[in-house]
Each structure stands twice: as structure tokens, then as C-alpha cells.
Amino acid sequence: MCQVDEEYNGQLEHRVTPRVSKKCVKCKENTAVLIIRAGDAFCRGCFKEYFIHKFRAMLGKNRVIFPGEKVLLAVSGGPASSSMLSQVQEGLSRDAPKKLRFVPGIIYIDEGGASGQSMEERERAVAQLESVFRATNYHYHIVHLEQVLSLPSSVLDAGSSATEKPQTGSSYKAAVDQFIQTKKNQHPDLSVENAQSHLSSLSMHEVENGVTSPITPEHTQALQKLFASVRTLTAKEDLLHTLRQHLILHTARTQGYTKVMMGDSCSRLAIKLLSNISLGRGASLATDTGFSDPRYGDVVIVRPMRDYSSKEIAYYNRMFDIPSVFIPGLDTKAQDKASIQHLTESFVTKLQTDFPSTVSTIYRTSEKLHTACPPQNTNTQPFAKCLLCVCALDTKLEEFSAYQATLISEQLSQRRGPASSASQGQCCSSGGGQHQGCMTGEGGCCSSAKSTVDLKSLLCYSCRLTIKDMVNALPQYILSEAERRKRRSQMREEISEFLLDEEEDEAIPRVNGSL
Amino acid sequence: MVSLLSLYLGGGAELLFGSVKEHHVTLPNQSEPWDMKQLLVWIRGNMLKERPELFVQGDTVRPGILVLINDADWELMGELEYELQDKDNVVFISTLHGG
């Protein structure tokens, strides 16, 4: 069997291309028009039912959306998020049986500044999308990526979670009751229907509020400088993703949304899973690709499209005229090997054509990943989370861990090189105003060794790799938050001997009255 | 047999064709009927403006591009061996740019 010149002709499974028109496997009457997965042929009507049902089932199975809750839909204009928008419309429409009950809002982030588009192209895309959003009658927000430079540093705080994550049906009901109670305390007379009609009557007026203030070319230049300071496309894409998440989070928090729906499809999540492992984000795989992402605490990110392959979405959009706008991104027309994410995408897509169960296998594997619950002393360590991606820090140096091995090999390879740290002069260190000067001034001075090391301790492994080239060009809010955390940890060290440990607290018998 | 075809490009594939989504083409006469394989060769030679490897790979389309013939999956029609009829509608949608 295991010989050098194997002859496998005719024994391997060959993908049979059917010649005769097949019948739909579900209704068995109509002619099939689409093949899904590894060979199920559906007719048009059955496919539409299947598609709509999957969305409702996904939301129903993972019950995290409470009725009456404000949910922000992150729409990028691409097929998957446009499809998600139409499914939400479908689910909320009055004639749907068991209709969904939540209050949606839409956010679109204009990333043209980072991907090098001209202002006219960006305005055209925004205008197209605005007409789509207006047709839905939901409140929408158009946010430009340039605004990330003026975010407050409080956006990086992981807010406290509003409720415990419901595990079983009964606690979901309890959570819903609690949610309705807190809502009633805030708005005593706004029911869900009132809220929706209220919003739709205001939508024409608040359209101006939905679009944020126009941005100046200086902002765009600052953003472009930020991205130009990152050398690799991999790091650029990672940074873009992080900044986008921060913007969405900030908008959700300021506008009162407690859930955010992202339109990641099954194929996209499979690619994300593999490329995250390559980027060093293996520790946060479950939150990055799971259905709900609770890392931000008060705002939960939900991915209802994670069961749809891109083929199904593309076909549905084409058949049922879902408007979507194509907007070129950072990796449009890039070479296959331009970035890790792009390479993984071409790898998975190629594999999928020959082995149609690739994506679903990866997806099912990702479903089995769960985050181990951290011990409940995260309150005492508010900055045990990464500064940029807000997931748990995974860089505790343990004996014989893979991380320790990476560090040792890094040190060994650096010992050979010339001592370059001596040549780095004292660059513009602390002092907020000087950060601006650093960005516009000499390009070669930045990376004073001291501030690099300090920032590193606040980041998870993969975020460290992303910012390796760009310490002093980070947006202001990240740097000021980093300063704050450093000061807090220094303070903590100084008073650490005076802090009571939790175990000591219980051992010491309590004394009534003051000490 | 003259074949008048309408081609539609979506999902970003139009970028390779000068950002024009809809095309109506008349294929030149030949004795045998046109099939998809020959159509792809013809598109590559006559319509693609740039970066042919992003659309056609070898004999077939690049993985990630969905092909619909008269609004039906081309896998149901025989993929490359399908013979084109007059006034057929062929759609190429790139699924590589996600949502």
C-alpha cells in the first residue's frame, strides 16, 4: 500500500458534476438552483426559507438578545453585513411569526483614509450606503476612521458586565426580567413599539445627527501617517481591526447600545481562526470567533451570521436583490503572500474547492472552543487585560512554556547583532504635547527603549508584534491610557505590602467598630 | 451560432474589468458551440483589463468566485462543460471580499 509510485486513478473520490437537472432535496418537486455544502441541492423557495430560518435559529439558540434591547448593527457595506441587515429587517417586520424584538441601530465606519481612497470615492460610497440605510428606517451612524484619533482613553476600560451570562433557559428569563426592570427605571413609559415609532419619526430629523462632523485633510493625513509607520500589511490589517473595534465600542457606549452585531460569515471566521493562530492570538480564539464576545464587559459582540458560508450569502444577495456596496480595502488586489490574513484566505478558499467540507470542519472545531473562566479576582487586577485588544493577557512567564521558548530564542538571536540600543537617543518621552511633535517630526528618532518596554508589559503577545514598529505614532488615547496603567501599577507596587490579601482577610478575626 | 451573452460581475470582480458591472458580449462565430471553458479563455483574452490571475486560474475560475448561469449554480449545469445558449446570463460574483 505505501509505495513510492502509487496509482490512485479511479479509486479516489471524484467530484461528480451532475449533468441531469437535479431536484431539490427538500421539497423534491422544484428544480434545484444551488448546491450548498457538499451536495445538497436546493430550489429557490426552499433556499430562502432555509436562509431565513438559520438566522432566527442562531439568535434563538444562543439567547443573549433581550427584547427591547438596543442593538448596534455593524455594516461595512459588504455582502455578509448587508445580508445581516436585511435579515434583521425581515425578522423585525410585523408579519413575521414570532418576530424578533429589539431596537436596531446601524453603524458604518468609513475606512477610506486608511486604505488610500480619495475623498470623492469615499463620499460616493457613503452616499450609496446612506440611501440603503434610509430605506430601513433605522437610526444610523456614519463614523470616519479619522475620529479614532480623538477618542477618550476611557474607551479601553473593560466596563463591568451588566448581567451574568445566562446559561440555561430559566436564568435567561431572569436576566430578561432584570433587564426590563432596569429599563423601566430609566424610561418609565417607553415600550418597544413606542420606541420604534419614536425612532422612525425622529429618523428624518436625526439623520443629521447620525452623520458626524466632516473631517479635515489634516485628520486624514495623521491617520495615513499612523498606518504608514507600520511596516507590514499583516500588522496594518490587525491595527485597522483594533481601531475599528474601538470606534464601534465607543459609539455603542455613548449611544446606549448594549449589543453589537457583526456580520462575520462562516468562511470569514474559519479564515480568521487560522490566521489568528498564526498571529499569536491563540489564547483568545474562543472570544474572537465564538458567537458572543464578552470581553468588553458592558457591550457584548454577537455574530449571528457565523453559520452562513460566503457562497450562500452571495447567492442570496443576488437572488433577492440585497443592496450591497463594494468598497476596496487594504488588501484589495494584493499579492497572495502580502499578509498572513490574505495568505490564509487564499489557502482556505483553494482547499474549499477541492474539499467542500473544509470550512464547516473548521467552524465546528471553533464551536467546541470555550474560554476557561478566569478566577474571580479580575476585579483586583483591572489591567490584566491587553491594552489594545482587551482580551486577557497571556504573557505570564511560566517555566517551560512556549512563550518562554520564544523569548529565549529572541534573546539569543539579538546577542549576535550589533548593540543598537545605545544609539537610540532620548526621544520625546513623557509629556502629552510632545507626542504630536514626535509624529510630525523626525521619523527616525522614535522608539526610545524605555517606553517600548513599558508598553510591552501592557499588551498581549500578538499586539506586541503589531506595534513593534510604531510606539510613538500610536493614537493619543492609547498612549494616555498606557500611562495611566503604568502609574497605577507603580502605585500598586509601592503600597503592595499594605494591601490585605483576600485569604489573610478571612483568617483575621473581624473586630467590630473602628480600628 | 452567434451567442449574445449578458455578463454581470459582482463582489469586487468588476474592479478587474474597469469597474463596469454589466457587459453584453457577442461571441464570434465558430463551428462547435461555445462552452464555459472557451468562454473563460475568451474573457481572459478580450475583457480582463488587469491581473488575470485574480480571475482565472488555469482552466477554471479562481477559487472564491461564484459562477451562476441563468441564476443557477454552475455546478448543477456541468461547470466547465456547460454549452452556452443564446441569450444566456452569466454572473461572476467574487466572495473573497467579506462583509
UniProtKB/TrEMBL annotation, chain A:
<dbReference type="GO" id="GO:0016779">
    <property type="term" value="F:nucleotidyltransferase activity"/>
</dbReference>
<dbReference type="InterPro" id="IPR014729">
    <property type="entry name" value="Rossmann-like_a/b/a_fold"/>
</dbReference>
<dbReference type="GO" id="GO:0000049">
    <property type="term" value="F:tRNA binding"/>
</dbReference>
<dbReference type="GO" id="GO:0005829">
    <property type="term" value="C:cytosol"/>
</dbReference>
<dbReference type="GO" id="GO:0002143">
    <property type="term" value="P:tRNA wobble position uridine thiolation"/>
</dbReference>
<comment type="similarity">
    <text>Belongs to the CTU2/NCS2 family.</text>
</comment>
<protein>
    <recommendedName>
        <fullName>Cytoplasmic tRNA 2-thiolation protein 2</fullName>
    </recommendedName>
</protein>
<dbReference type="InterPro" id="IPR019407">
    <property type="entry name" value="CTU2"/>
</dbReference>
<keyword id="KW-0963">Cytoplasm</keyword>
<comment type="function">
    <text>Plays a central role in 2-thiolation of mcm(5)S(2)U at tRNA wobble positions of tRNA(Lys), tRNA(Glu) and tRNA(Gln). May act by forming a heterodimer with CTU1/ATPBD3 that ligates sulfur from thiocarboxylated URM1 onto the uridine of tRNAs at wobble position.</text>
</comment>
<dbReference type="GO" id="GO:0016783">
    <property type="term" value="F:sulfurtransferase activity"/>
</dbReference>
<keyword id="KW-0819">tRNA processing</keyword>
<dbReference type="GO" id="GO:0032447">
    <property type="term" value="P:protein urmylation"/>
</dbReference>
<comment type="pathway">
    <text>tRNA modification; 5-methoxycarbonylmethyl-2-thiouridine-tRNA biosynthesis.</text>
</comment>
<dbReference type="Pfam" id="PF10288">
    <property type="entry name" value="CTU2"/>
</dbReference>
From TrEMBL, chain B:
<keyword id="KW-0833">Ubl conjugation pathway</keyword>
<keyword id="KW-0963">Cytoplasm</keyword>
<dbReference type="GO" id="GO:0034227">
    <property type="term" value="P:tRNA thio-modification"/>
</dbReference>
<dbReference type="Pfam" id="PF09138">
    <property type="entry name" value="Urm1"/>
</dbReference>
<comment type="function">
    <text>Acts as a sulfur carrier required for 2-thiolation of mcm(5)S(2)U at tRNA wobble positions of cytosolic tRNA(Lys), tRNA(Glu) and tRNA(Gln). Serves as sulfur donor in tRNA 2-thiolation reaction by being thiocarboxylated (-COSH) at its C-terminus by MOCS3. The sulfur is then transferred to tRNA to form 2-thiolation of mcm(5)S(2)U. Also acts as a ubiquitin-like protein (UBL) that is covalently conjugated via an isopeptide bond to lysine residues of target proteins.</text>
</comment>
<dbReference type="GO" id="GO:0005829">
    <property type="term" value="C:cytosol"/>
</dbReference>
<keyword id="KW-0819">tRNA processing</keyword>
<feature type="cross-link" description="Glycyl lysine isopeptide (Gly-Lys) (interchain with K-? in acceptor proteins)">
    <location>
        <position position="99"/>
    </location>
</feature>
<dbReference type="InterPro" id="IPR012675">
    <property type="entry name" value="Beta-grasp_dom_sf"/>
</dbReference>
<comment type="pathway">
    <text>tRNA modification; 5-methoxycarbonylmethyl-2-thiouridine-tRNA biosynthesis.</text>
</comment>
<protein>
    <recommendedName>
        <fullName>Ubiquitin-related modifier 1</fullName>
    </recommendedName>
</protein>
<keyword id="KW-1017">Isopeptide bond</keyword>
<comment type="similarity">
    <text>Belongs to the URM1 family.</text>
</comment>
<dbReference type="InterPro" id="IPR016155">
    <property type="entry name" value="Mopterin_synth/thiamin_S_b"/>
</dbReference>
<dbReference type="InterPro" id="IPR015221">
    <property type="entry name" value="Urm1"/>
</dbReference>
<dbReference type="GO" id="GO:0002098">
    <property type="term" value="P:tRNA wobble uridine modification"/>
</dbReference>
<feature type="modified residue" description="1-thioglycine">
    <location>
        <position position="99"/>
    </location>
</feature>
<dbReference type="GO" id="GO:0032447">
    <property type="term" value="P:protein urmylation"/>
</dbReference>
